């Protein structure tokens, strides 16, 4: 660990190695309690180091060049991976699930990121990698979690409440009226982690983005302002993502004759 005159701390590879040794505590807990998570923990730790190191090299290269097509390529890859990750977290799958999750993730995250970059922060040019890549990554990570929670909740509800939905349809309800309660519950379920985070931020928890900025030597007041903006961006993106996902998903469970049909 090295320090400069203004008390900014620079991490060395030795510091990272020391921090990684703490994983041994987690492995010991897993072994003693027979959690059978040893392989998963080791793989997660290894992937964390490899993936972040790799993306660090790429970002350093992209930041130095600042070419719009390179930035756009990275944003596209990030969005595709987020859509795939959201799909993989859904236990009961159906044909077209990847398209639905990708649309929900991309529309919500890209739209909110565009507003943040072009309107709120007024970044010039818009493809400045220092801003657009971290913001989109932050929003994508939270959106895919919210979308996968919504999809899981809604699909499970369709399977468990098939009789109720069909009864509603038999009473002349439209497809959306028949599944409105399930859609509403699924969206609320997807939004819950974001809302819970907003309720305790600054009181119980200090978000990673703000903590990272402060540790890097940024002005705490500016770090807090950035965190407030990002929390609102995440909230809007998660809401849009959950809503789009729910609306796209429920349509997959009705045929052309407006009949409820499980995949």
From TrEMBL:
Encoding gene, per UniProt annotation? fetB
- What this protein is called in its record is Iron export ABC transporter permease subunit FetB
**Gene Ontology CC: one annotated term:** plasma membrane
Classification via Pfam families: UPF0014
InterPro entries attached to this UniProt entry? UPF0014_fam (IPR005226)
**Keyword Transmembrane (UniProt):** yes
TM ranges: 12-29, 41-62, 98-121, 133-159, 194-216, 228-250
Membrane topology, record value = Multi-pass membrane protein
Tell me which family the UniProt entry assigns to this protein. Answer: Belongs to the UPF0014 family.
Per UniProt, subcellular location reads as: Membrane
- Source superkingdom: Bacteria
* Chief location of this protein within or outside the cell: membrane
What keywords were assigned to this record? Membrane, Transmembrane, Transmembrane helix
